[in-house]
Amino acid sequence: MNKVYPDAKSALEGILKDGMMIMSGGFGLCGIPETLSDAIRDSGVKNLTFISNNAGVDGIGLSRLLETRQIKKMISSYVGENKLFAQQYLAGELELEFNPQGTLAERIRAGGAGIPAFFTKTGVGTLIAEGKEVREFDGEKYLMERSLFGDIAIVHAWMGDTAGNLVYRKTARNFNPMMATAAKITVAEVEHLVPAGQIDPDHIHTPGIFVKRIVQVGTAKKHIEFRTTRPRTAQAATGVEV
Amino acid sequence: MNKVYPDAKSALEGILKDGMMIMSGGFGLCGIPETLSDAIRDSGVKNLTFISNNAGVDGIGLSRLLETRQIKKMISSYVGENKLFAQQYLAGELELEFNPQGTLAERIRAGGAGIPAFFTKTGVGTLIAEGKEVREFDGEKYLMERSLFGDIAIVHAWMGDTAGNLVYRKTARNFNPMMATAAKITVAEVEHLVPAGQIDPDHIHTPGIFVKRIVQVGTAKKHIEFRTTRPRTAQAATGVEV
Amino acid sequence: MAWTREQMAARAAKELRDGYYVNLGIGIPTLVSNFIPEGIEVNLQSENGMLGMGPFPFEGEEDPDLINAGKQTVSELPSTSYFSSADSFAMVRGGHIDLSILGAMQVAQNGDLANWMIPGKMVKGMGGAMDLVAGVKRVVVVMEHSAKDGPKLLKKCNLPLTGERVVDMVVTDLAVFTIDKHGKDGMALIELADGVTLEEVKANTEAEFRVALKNA
Amino acid sequence: MAWTREQMAARAAKELRDGYYVNLGIGIPTLVSNFIPEGIEVNLQSENGMLGMGPFPFEGEEDPDLINAGKQTVSELPSTSYFSSADSFAMVRGGHIDLSILGAMQVAQNGDLANWMIPGKMVKGMGGAMDLVAGVKRVVVVMEHSAKDGPKLLKKCNLPLTGERVVDMVVTDLAVFTIDKHGKDGMALIELADGVTLEEVKANTEAEFRVALKNA
């Protein structure tokens, strides 16, 4: 059962359709499956709903599918980085569903885990609660949230093997592991592809069962959104602004 | 903030009380926090409720707290290995709540994750559904299950560091990671204790935030419940019975 | 002449497809792994937290930290990964496992399954059985056709259920049946074991079934 | 004379305790990490999936895979661990984080908080703010006492809420208040900034509050 594809285009072949719902990993520009989202752009498929914490920044990531108007709707927690997004939204050309970030993450996790709905304190008494069931447990109010499940998921990992096992690197992990579990077909792009057996099985973040197709993309497309540093002479203060 | 204790007794000092609810990791005899459960036995604390997938086998693990009648109630998925358990249960001396294994795991995960209740297909139309809300989502029936949260959790890990970060080994991981998140105070026993910074942060299974106390116990207390092997001359058949 | 345990396992193994992720129960289902058809790659899941379960270890290589859901020592494969019980049952419940092959005490003609308790006897617990039958895409039961006290394929189970409308196929020592668990086609006899007659199957089956024998 | 941004951050930092796990918002809250009291060890959580967040990296050591929730490059510490967004917010929602320090547009006297949208203006999204205020054990707001168009400490927020009854303490450039968010003690003024008078605070605050000044 071969899971390895030679490039992003072939890894997406036969599974893209107009109007489909796509999970796309990443937080900001960190850990986004940019090679795969660019290939979705190139495919020309349209009227897409994307579930993604953010919408890229102008010219990078999902923003490139906004340019071509292939995206009909976004389910996100924050889109503040993206001017094109704001324009299309204000012009009524783009639907938007905001989810609190933790609720979004948990809805995706629930989708992959066969849990159709769960309760959370997040959003009680806010606009997010509109139209949702509110229920008390042990004297506290909670909202019922439904799960999310995509037609396909695209994720980015640091390393993958031929069995589809994935390892993420540092904060590039973010939404990728849950999304990998929450779609009919998950396609993974990896910086490094190795034969099965090369990754310590205790270090695997996403077991191969969740990954149907895998493609090696190298490390070229990695971006820094806000480059913050401290000078080498400065004293090491935690999180200091410079 | 020191988390390291010299032995199991001191690691449990001041936190044990009669009648408390204790989460205890492990599956069968694999990955059980036996040094800590033995120390709970030695403390003499009683009327305990244990949440544990199994109840040890006669003479090992939680079974030793059955011998001393310190356990009032078990919340488990399978207790078939334990003759003493059967005796006490049939004599009406022990309460028992069976949970499907996946429901048990998810109730614990929910407890640690601030989710008071969730829906699952598991157990619909069975004895497990008695007294539980049944609800349809997209034409399928689901049960509502409540979360579990303990007074303390005891877990066993392969390696830990002074910041409380834990790494489990192979199938000894099982219930330990969720239980570590689902109690007011989590005490971890580890085979190997290292200074913070020695474990690759991408390999950590339980972040230190969940572990209040940690004690090194070595590898002496590890048991095999069913020793199944194949002779070196045999052909390598998967899962072959010998 | 009915099928042996090995023949039943071999028949169940014909349900495997290349690339399948499969969970095998204890007993005859475990034997299925000895009959995986040539050229087919199957990945075994063990619900205690392992994907890519290998065979029993060589003598002297048993590892207390490496067991299957039956608490037996097993070994690793190149594809192996480990995960928590929560992640394992998320995988099960979420429908990611293609096939579960397990034993049963009773199966009803609508797909109801009973395999975890007998009232009045000491109850050991359901372990992961309820999660597996509710969550796995396709459930194949492998069991003896009859118990000492009568048929096991019933109109309605009289033992407490493990799951409601969950069984897709039953392989016994006498025959193979399919069950349309969500639809209205009910139960169908699709194969007879070598040398077994239709009359013999009818005599030992309480459940109502259509006869839909292949190559008959 | 009101407090500077640095003085506000320093005051908020006094709420830190040894061993605390803390989430800091963007802006003034970020500055709090510069004022961690001597002898106290605090662990910073970044909700995108990191515990044990270190300072900005040295020039040339920026790593695109290592950012905080504000998408800024940061560095690792010996205690660092990484995890998924689901695990990160399980940590937040489950009440495992001791303290969250964050900015606000408005705070009401019952602890209601508004900090994510202004109707009629482009909405950027709430990110993780709603989860943090609902889940973290104790929430401290650090903000300017007044906006250009009037008070920010109100009887009732008129902007859409981020959370209902979630704020425990407010540090402004003029004063420090506590809020009994679940009880009936309401809001209390407990400190004045250097050189600020009670009258000045009263004139700039719409919310009703008790005066309970320490060492006054």
Describe the structure.
The complex is a heterotetramer, with two copies of chain A (242 residues) and two copies of chain C (216 residues). In chain A, strands 1, 2, 3, 4, 5, 9, 10, 11 and 12 form a nine-stranded mixed β-sheet that branches. Chain A contains six helices and twelve strands. Chain A is globular, with a radius of gyration of 19 Å. With 242 residues, chain A is an alpha/beta fold. The model of chain A has no long low-confidence stretch (mean pLDDT 94). Chain C has 216 residues and is α/β, with parallel strands linked by helices. In chain C, the strands form three sheets. Chain C has a ten-stranded mixed β-sheet with strand order 4-3-2-1-5-8-12-13-14-15. Chain C has a three-stranded mixed β-sheet with strand order 7-6-11, with no helix packed on it. Chain C has a two-stranded antiparallel sheet with strand order 9-10. In chain C, a hairpin with a 5-residue loop joins strand 13 and strand 14 (186-192). The mean pLDDT of chain C is 95. The chains are: A alpha/beta (242), C alpha/beta (216). Chains A and D meet through helix 4, helix 5 and helix 6 of A and helix 3 and helix 4 of D.
Please outline what is shown here.
With 242 residues, chain A is α/β, with parallel strands linked by helices. Chain A has six helices and twelve strands. Chain A has two domains: 4-114 and 149-216, 3-Layer(aba) Sandwich (Glutaconate Coenzyme A-transferase); 118-145, no CATH class.
